[in-house]
Design brief:
This protein has a domain of 44 residues: Histone, subunit A. It contains three helices and two strands. The protein is mainly α. The termini are far apart.
């Protein structure tokens, strides 16, 4: 995909961008990167031609909706499991050592 005459005014100069980024490019590297950048910009210009007049702006490409599972009430008594793993358990409570001075 070549660069047309009318697009030369919209061309981004790789040498200028390399200077901003403080990159040193050899002339051969600059030619390669300029050609690649021109190709990318050519694809972007092609996207500008896409017919979008009938489309409304949307942040998402499709319809979105939340999918929720049904709430189900079920028994869950984990006290036996929790108390088995606790170093100290009394009256359905975890007993932990104090972390602040009690005086």
């Amino acid at each position: 995909m070549g660069v047309e005459e009318k697009d030369l005014a919209r061309r981004i100069d790789v040498g200028y961008v390399a200077g901003l980024a403080r990159l040193e490019l050899s002339p051969d590297e600059a030619k390669i990167f300029q050609r690649q950048l021109d190709e990318v910009l050519g694809y972007v210009r092609l996207l500008e031609l896409a017919p979008v007049d009938d489309l409304s702006p949307s942040p998402y490409p499709g319809d979105l909706s939340n999918v929720f599972r049904k709430d189900a009430v079920r028994a869950s008594d984990i006290r036996d499991t929790a108390s088995a793993n606790a170093p100290c358990w009394r009256n359905s409570l975890f007993i932990v050592p104090p972390i602040m001075d009690q005086s």
